[in-house]
Amino acid sequence: MTRGDHIYVSRAGYTHHGIDVGAGRVIHYSGEPGKSKAHATIRHATLQEFAQGSDVKVRNYGKRFGLDETALRAESKLGECDYDLLGRNCEHLASWCVTGRNTSGQVIGAVAVAGLGTATAAAAAASVGVVGAAGAAAGLSGAGVMSGLAAAGGLVGGGAVAGLAVLGAAPGFVGAGIMQVALADDENFPEAEREARSIGRKAAVAGAAASSVGGIAAVSVLGTAGLSAAGITSGLATVGAAVGGGMVAGSAALIAAPAVAAAGVGYGLYRAARWWRSSHRVPESAPPFSVGKDQVTDAALEDVSP
Fold first, then answer.
1. pTM of the model
2. Which of 53-57, 181-185, 268-272, 301-305 has the lowest mean pLDDT?
3. Of 2.60.40.150, 3.90.1720.10, 1.10.3720.10, 3.40.50.720, which CATH number belongs to 6-103?
4. The three-state (H, E, C) secondary structure of the chain, written as one string
């Protein structure tokens, strides 16, 4: 490690960040044992105090301030007591010292997960409500669900099958959109990280689209008569039974599936791309003023993800 490096250690369920300022010293946001995080202060610590027995890793960057400038920026914040978990935590501090940007991958990831779950559930519930109200046979009986799906499908010139795709489009759009934010590009990231994020963003869109097609195929396969009215009814009931419900639950599951697929496929392929680059040790250009490439190769893809 070198004076001016952004370093971090893994703790139970999160990572803790700081700036190496040389001579075995680290500047980080730290609270006193037994006291609320509200009293956390930016202070010096020894490397051993910072690590607490964990391996210390270096975060690599594509674009960053020089090492000396980074250390001076950290020192300028000593004594600050303005800790906020979502807006000013230890990772925010370290990122600001290195890039001038107050960002935290951990917070972005947590907010994305929470937002995805909430938005998906809300969109699915709203869609089921539309199904129950839009059909000629109102309500959530079998006839009501089928007529509601047919009404939704009629918006694009189709029937009940098209209705499933139409109603799943909103959650799918939300899921893909959230992954675009969570895996957004940043010139401060190493090139390998930027490439992996690009793959993840594209995969999220593809995953949402593929899930819509897959859901319709599942209804056809699980139903008693393909994609006829009877087939769709029995297929939705079978899907619903798998999640502990009936035809309505099956409709909700298939409507929500594109959002879940967008997140799962997008994030999964992003992680796979990172793993591939790391395991194959693709050379990474060392950023200006950074530590030697041999010191950061293993860390180049570490802990910049949500």
1. 0.74
2. 301-305
3. 3.90.1720.10
4. CCCCCEEEEEECCEEEEEEEEECCEEEEEECCCCCCHHHCEEEEEEHHHHHCCCCCEECCCCCCCCHHHHHHHHHCCCCCCCCECCCECHHHHHHHHHHCCCCCHHHHHHHHHHHHHHHHHHHHHHHHHHHHHHCCCCCCCHHHHHHHHHHHHHCCCCCHHHHHHHHHHHHHHHHHHHHHHHCCCCCCCCHHHHHHHHHHHHHHHHHHHHHHHHHHHHHHHHCCCCCCHHHHHHHHHHHHHHCCCCHHHHHHHHHHHHHHHHHHHHHHHHHHHHHHHHHCCCCCCCCCCCCCHHHHCCCCCCCCCC
What is the structure's pLDDT at 131? 67
Arithmetic mean of pLDDT, 223-227: 73
